[in-house]
Amino acid sequence: MSTQVEKPATADVDRPTRLRLYQLMVELRNFEQRAYELFLENLVRGTSHLALGQEAIAAGYAVAMRPDDYTFCTYRGHNHTLARGASMAAAMAELLGRGNGMLHGKGGSMHLTDVTHGAMGSYAIVGAHLPIAAGAAWSAQVRASGQVAVCFFGDGTTNIGAFHEALNLAVVWKLPVVFVCENNLYMEYTPIDSVTAVKHPAADRASAYGLESILVDGNDADVMYDIARQTIGKARAGGGPSLVEALTYRHGGHSRADPAKYRPEAEVREWMARDPIKRYRPRLLEAAVDESEIRDIETRARQKVDAATEEARKGAPATVDEIERQVWSDGSARWRN
Asked: Which domains does the chain carry?
């Protein structure tokens, strides 16, 4: 299977799926925008890395996954966690460092985790989660559960040793795992092409592990859903791993403190015109979806974020007792004294 980025949007995505894809993208966009607004109010604790503009990747794969499949993602993981069905209010409260947060306020933006929805964690160490995703896939293989692990990572991860080690092992053991590189062109502040020997850091390296080169438009939800179905289906059927490179672009800087002035203005304009939500809305209209139905999805998404924000704000600050839970073997650090 070889998919090129020039591949047009698929025409066989049914109406309910398209509406679900749009709903997810709009919800994720509204959540991230609200998170930034709360940061400006000095309410978001610690750093945060927003994925504004990258919603199509998370939505496409989440819709194609089974409820018991596994998602592994990076510190830019709000989208992937929420797309799997995790509580928006709990995620927002976690960003605010509240006790009603997803991890009772001790994880923050960079470590969102909801195992009950298959969101197996956001990892701050670049590349650290790829071998863990392979391990989860190995567990599924041994148990013959039919589960698939999907692991998302940035373009910079392709220059990390764990990337190559995880891919090699996954191929050797034919593990049910899909590795998805979200290539937003920059590894923090450095253009990926200035420090990488190949043009496409993931797709051009696939052949070294006996994998097909898969390069897709990460800003097209239909394309992402289609490639998700193919790669997940292959893994679930025992066909082994896949490596996907999805081209995308973050609307803002690397983190909340980054104004992203290092990016050329023409490049920013070009990619802003390829906004996945702005591109998808006209497609729904062309598919005979009524304007009122689209507006209803957008209204409900804003209401959902408003409700989540209100619930998060009501939460009390995280307590020390909660922060120490599930850290020490006896439930606290007192044994160390």
From this structure: 15-322 (3.40.50.970)
Q: What pLDDT, on a 0 to 100 scale, did the predictor assign at position 214?
A: 98
Nearest 5 degrees, angle CA 244-CA 112-CA 69?
A: 50
* CA dihedral of residues 272, 309, 81, 116 (deg, nearest 10): -160
Which tokens sit at 165?
A: 């080690």
In angstroms, rounded to a whole number, what is the distance separating the alpha carbons of residues 35 and 21? Answer: 21
Question: What confidence score (pLDDT) does residue 170 get?
Answer: 98
CB-neighbour burial class of residue 198 (10 A; exposed 0-12, middle 13-18, buried 19+): exposed
Q: Assign 2 a pLDDT band (cuts: 50, 70, 90).
A: very low
152 pLDDT above the threshold of 50: yes
Alpha-carbon gap, residue 194 to 7, rounded angstroms: 26
82 pLDDT more than 60 = yes
**Distance of CA 117 to CAs 48, 131, 133, 268, Å?**
22, 21, 16, 35
Flag whether the pTM goes above 0.90. Answer: yes
Polymer length in residues for the chain: 337
The Cα–Cα gap between 231 and 148 comes to 10
